[in-house]
C-alpha cells in the first residue's frame, strides 16, 4: 500500500513539473509576441509616409555622391556612344563626373566638370582637359540634383517590399519623363517600375533600381541602378586646367 502511494505522489509531482514547464513556455511566448507586436506598431509606416519623409529629406540636401550602374543596357548618347557606368559628386547645379562608355568595341573613359554653367571635359585619348560650350557636351542633360527629386515625385502603386534595421524597400510605378535629367531624350509617357531603398534614420534615398524603357530604343528588360551616398559632405569643385 505504501509503495502505491509513493508511486502516485511521484506521478503527481511529475505532472505538476510538466504543467509548470508548459505554463512557463506559454508565458514566455506571450511576452515575445507582445514585444514583437509593440515593435511593429512603433516602426510600421505606410509606403506613402516613407516616400513623403524621403521627399522632405532630399529637399534639404546640399550635396551628395552618386553612381549609375547598368545591370543590363546603356544610355544612348548619340553617334554610337553608349554610357554604361558613371559616378561623381554634385553640389546644387555644379558637379563632377567620371564616365565609361562604349563606342563599337572600344571602351571610352572620360571626366567632366560643370561649374556655374561652364563645362570642362577630358580628351578620352590624351586625358587632357579643355573647356567646351555646354551645348556641345554629350552629357549636357545631366542634372543629379533634379534627378533625385524627380525620382521621388509622381509615384503610384506604392508597396512596401520589406524592411530591416536600417532601410525600407519600396516599389512604385512612375513615368520615363522623370528621368530626363539622367538620359536626356526619353520615351515620353512610358510607365516603368522602380524599387527604392530609403534609410530609416536619415530618410535619404540610398538606391533606386529602374526597370523598363526610358529611352526610345531601350529594351523592356533594361535595368539601371543608381546609388546615392555621402549626403551633405561638402567638397570644393574647382575648374580644371590644361595641365591637370
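^ C-alpha cells above, recovered residues below v
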Amino acid at each position: 500500500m505504501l509503495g502505491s502511494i509513493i508511486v502516485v505522489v511521484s506521478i503527481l509531482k511529475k505532472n505538476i513539473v510538466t504543467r509548470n514547464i508548459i505554463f512557463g513556455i506559454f508565458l514566455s511566448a506571450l511576452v515575445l509576441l507582445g514585444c514583437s507586436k509593440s515593435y511593429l506598431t512603433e516602426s510600421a509606416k505606410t509606403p506613402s509616409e516613407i516616400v513623403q519623409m524621403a521627399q522632405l529629406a532630399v529637399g534639404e540636401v546640399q550635396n551628395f555622391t552618386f553612381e549609375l550602374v547598368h545591370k543590363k543596357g546603356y544610355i544612348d548618347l548619340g553617334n554610337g556612344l553608349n554610357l554604361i557606368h558613371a559616378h561623381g559628386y554634385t553640389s546644387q547645379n555644379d558637379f563632377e563626373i567620371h564616365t565609361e562608355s562604349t563606342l563599337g568595341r572600344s571602351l571610352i573613359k572620360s571626366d567632366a566638370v560643370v561649374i556655374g554653367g561652364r563645362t570642362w571635359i577630358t580628351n578620352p585619348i590624351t586625358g587632357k582637359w579643355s573647356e567646351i560650350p555646354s551645348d556641345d557636351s554629350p552629357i549636357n542633360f545631366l542634372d543629379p540634383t533634379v534627378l533625385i527629386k524627380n525620382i521621388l515625385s509622381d509615384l503610384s502603386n506604392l508597396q512596401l517590399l520589406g524592411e530591416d534595421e536600417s532601410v525600407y524597400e519600396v516599389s512604385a510605378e512612375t513615368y520615363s519623363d522623370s528621368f530626363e535629367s539622367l538620359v536626356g531624350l526619353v520615351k515620353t509617357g512610358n510607365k516603368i517600375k522602380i524599387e527604392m531603398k530609403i534609410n530609416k534614420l536619415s530618410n535619404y534615398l540610398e538606391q533606386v533600381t529602374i526597370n523598363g524603357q526610358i529611352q526610345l530604343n531601350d529594351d523592356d528588360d533594361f535595368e539601371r541602378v543608381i546609388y546615392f551616398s555621402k549626403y551633405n559632405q561638402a567638397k570644393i569643385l574647382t575648374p580644371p586646367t590644361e595641365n591637370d
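The first strand starts at residue 63 and ends at 72.
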